[in-house]
Amino acid sequence: MPRAMLAALAIACLVFTACDDDPAEPKKVTPSAYQDLTQEWHVLNNLAEAYDDKNVTRFEELLDAASFVFYFDPGDVGGQLNIPTQWDYAAELQSATNMFTGEPGLNDNPILTIDLFLFDIENVAWSDVSAHPDFPGETLREAVVRYDYFIDTTKDLQHITAGEPVARLIVRNVGGTWKIARWYDQPGGALLRAGASTEESTWGQVKALYR
User: Which pLDDT value is given to residue 195?
Assistant: First the structure.
């Protein structure tokens, strides 16, 4: 092939490549499933996403580090796990970190996958909390949301919810974003019958296993 023709082909290829990499060409980007926390329901959305993704960073940004408290279901307090009535931000974050990163927990049984579902998160009813003794002068927001989860572990034991439990969350606006200040784990409904490889539990019980 003549050199002139080869040179022409080379130039054509360069031009085509340059056009193909045109910076003005819009790139297809998959939108994030996470919300920006500027609305209350974003907290619920991101909570479910963070658990499903086992994303410590996304979970941490949901908590109000200065005031967060998790309250265990009173029926879980004490027992073999020696569950306290409540714990603070540091304990909550440590438990979640252990759950999400494959730490063995008290039963030497790391978590493989988490499938958390919070019911009807965009339409949950929120109400004002304007006289909370720990937050004088602030108006916080409160919602009660039913949850369900399926948690698989390395020992082929699955944790499932018992009955129809709910989480009562109180959120506060911190610098324009909503964060969880109080989290109450509450039972709901009758217990189900678990199979040989499943164990019914509350959210608090699972947290306590990996504290």
Answer: 47
Give 45-84 as a DSSP string.
HHHHHHHHHT-HHHHHTTB-TTT-EEE--GGGSBTTTTB-
Phi, psi of 127 (to 5 degrees): -130, 155
| Residue ranges per structural domain of the chain | 37-209
Question: Tens digit of pLDDT for each residue in 120-136?
Answer: 999 999 999 998 999 99
Q: For residues 189 and 71, give the distance between their C-alpha atoms in angstroms, rounded to a whole number.
A: 19
What is the predicted pLDDT for the residue at 191?
A: 43
Question: For residue 125, how many other CB atoms are within 10 A of its CB?
Answer: 9
Tell me the Ramachandran region of residue 20: left when phi exceeds 0, alpha when psi lies from -120 to 50, beta otherwise: alpha
The CATH number of the domain covering residues in 37-209: 3.10.450.50
